């Protein structure tokens, strides 16, 4: 099982150069906020991440890839709306 410190490190590295903030809910799930560090603009918020489902490095990397895809998709949509 991956520790929360390792999980956070993988996620922060995966989203660099964006910054990440984490909070833990009363049910032990994580909320991840991905933001632009200089402006503070929030690009992605994910709630209900169950760390127990992220038992291996492969699990974590798959989640990061999925969230990066979502982030890129949202960014493209925002560009088209401008």
From TrEMBL:
It holds the Pfam family DUF1652. It comes from the Bacteria. This is DUF1652 domain-containing protein. It comes from Pseudomonas chlororaphis O6.
